[in-house]
């Protein structure tokens, strides 16, 4: 996003602030526009996916923002106008009701200028550069006060090149990638590919024509071991089986229709990033504040609370993505969403009372994706349980 790669400031949203946000009354007739981030390593097939979406019938007027860094496709070139050394954002109709722009400076500026054209589109797709860390970008749209009132983050779609991904994941990273406050992390360096996979809500496992079935199986297992919560779609030329509900309209941040992650024994475990789930019985509404406190400790401090240092089995973890469902004793549900240290606990919008919805879980579940989480969910579950049950 920013050319100087300065990480944008993260905004901390507590459950309390969120309550104010969800109660915001929207202007009548003005609904928020969804934005999908399309990430993936250089050459993975992001532009191919955008072209596929733009040419398919979906009845949406999509505004596409392409970040032209390191790219040379004709459309992107033709869009960047240079005036006195300043990059100017230009909007171009690309047919099918869609408009497109190229961004050199700041994606946020492009979106603000896009919002001036509100009404001429109903969906935004942002293609990030192959080298962008989605964990820095997502919170901008998700919780930013200005943008947040007109846009909501629908989901993060990560393109993965089936032919090259294992090499990228195993490559020593050129520089240590960590988030604020964790520069001294001692574990093996992460690659950008790790970050793009760990933050994904959907993974488009592309270029399947270039690998054998065995290679595909290996890649699939490795990806699932890193991010066990993302849906994986295997594609050739980024042609997903359908668009709506697969790459668009995921509602990955405002609804949690299913959290169907199960810890499976993966044959190809990634040494750096993994996914785990904590299960806990229904809680009372008084205990939500306690969950909030636990989240603040693990997300903001990277510390499992209330454990003496010498007993800490997971001393050096880093959470990239966390999502959860809190099942309350009164039959209602709360949803937890976090990207890095930005999190919220909100009312579940699409989950009715248990008696009306047989799919609804009768327990709380928190899924965590991150670095150095330890060998299993056991230590996490024990910590969560003892923290919840501790009398304060
Ligand atoms: N064989 C094969 N080639 C593909 C597939 N998908 C995309 N390509 C080709 O791979 C190249 C890169 O695809 P892009 O869509 O430009 O990739 P990108 O992620 O946008 O690349 P950057 O913008 O450089 O980060 C293009 O030449 C595509 O035609 C696929 O499934 N199989």
Please describe the topology of this protein.
Elements: H1 15-22, E1 33-40, H2 46-55, E2 62-67, H3 74-79, E3 81-83, E4 86-88, E5 91-93, E6 99-103, H4 107-115, E7 123-127, H5 134-143, H6 145-148, E8 151-161, H7 165-170, H8 192-198, E9 202-206, H9 213-226, E10 231-234, E11 273-281, H10 288-301, E12 318-327, E13 333-339, E14 342-347, E15 363-371, H11 378-389
Parallel strand pairs: 1-7, 1-8, 2-6, 2-7, 8-9, 9-10
Antiparallel strand pairs: 3-4, 5-6, 11-15, 12-13, 12-15, 13-14
The structure holds guanosine-5'-triphosphate.
Summarize this structure briefly.
It is built from eleven helices and 15 strands. With 392 residues, the protein is α/β, with parallel strands linked by helices.
Could you please describe the fold and organization of this structure?
Belongs to the SIMIBI class G3E GTPase family. ZNG1 subfamily. One of its GO terms (cellular component) is cytoplasm. The chain is an alpha/beta fold and 392 residues long. It has a domain of 117 residues: Hypothetical Protein Yjia, Chain: A,domain 2 (2-Layer Sandwich), CATH 3.30.1220. It is built from 11 helices and 15 strands. The strands form 3 sheets. It has an 8-stranded mixed β-sheet with strand order 5-6-2-7-1-8-9-10, with helices on both faces. A 5-stranded antiparallel β-sheet has the order 11-15-12-13-14. The longest helix has 14 residues. The N terminus is likely disordered. The site of guanosine-5'-triphosphate has 19 residues, from helix 2. The site of guanosine-5'-triphosphate (GTP) has 19 residues, from helix 2.
């Amino acid at each position: 996003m920013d050319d100087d790669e300065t990480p944008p400031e993260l905004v901390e949203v507590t459950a309390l602030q969120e309550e104010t946000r969800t109660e915001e009354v929207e202007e009548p007739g003005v609904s928020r526009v969804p934005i999908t981030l399309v990430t993936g390593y250089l050459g993975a097939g992001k532009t191919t996916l955008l072209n596929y979406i733009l040419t398919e019938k979906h009845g949406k007027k999509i505004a596409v923002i392409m970040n032209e860094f390191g790219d040379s496709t004709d459309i992107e070139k033709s869009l960047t106008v240079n005036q006195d050394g300043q990059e100017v954002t230009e909007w171009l109709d690309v047919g099918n009701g869609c408009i497109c722009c190229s961004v050199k400076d700041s994606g946020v500026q492009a979106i603000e200028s896009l919002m001036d054209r509100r009404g001429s589109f109903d969906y935004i797709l942002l293609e990030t550069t192959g080298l962008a860390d989605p964990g820095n970008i997502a919170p901008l749209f998700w919780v930013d006060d200005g943008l947040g009132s007109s846009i909501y983050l629908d989901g993060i779609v990560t393109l993965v090149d089936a032919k090259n991904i294992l090499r990228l994941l195993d490559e020593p990273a050129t520089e240590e990638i960590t988030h604020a406050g964790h520069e001294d992390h001692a574990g093996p360096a992460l690659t950008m590919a790790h970050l793009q996979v760990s933050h994904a809500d959907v993974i488009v496992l592309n270029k399947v024509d270039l690998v054998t079935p065995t290679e595909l199986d290996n890649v699939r297992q490795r990806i699932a071991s890193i991010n066990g919560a993302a849906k994986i779609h295997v594609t050739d030329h980024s042609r997903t089986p359908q668009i709506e509900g697969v790459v668009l309209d995921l509602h990955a941040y405002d609804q949690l229709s299913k959290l169907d992650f199960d810890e499976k024994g993966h044959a190809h475990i990634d040494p750096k990033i993994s996914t785990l789930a904590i299960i806990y019985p229904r809680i009372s509404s008084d205990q939500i504040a306690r969950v909030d406190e636990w989240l603040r400790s693990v997300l903001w401090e990277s510390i499992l609370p209330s454990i003496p240092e010498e007993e800490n089995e997971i001393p050096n973890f880093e959470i990239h993505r966390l999502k959860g469902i809190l099942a309350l004793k009164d039959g209602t549900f709360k949803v937890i969403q976090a990207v890095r240290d930005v999190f919220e606990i909100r009312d579940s919008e699409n989950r009715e009372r248990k008696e009306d919805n047989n799919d609804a879980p009768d327990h709380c579940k928190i899924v965590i994706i991150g670095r150095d989480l330890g060998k299993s969910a056991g230590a996490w579950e024990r910590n969560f349980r003892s923290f919840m049950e501790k009398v304060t």
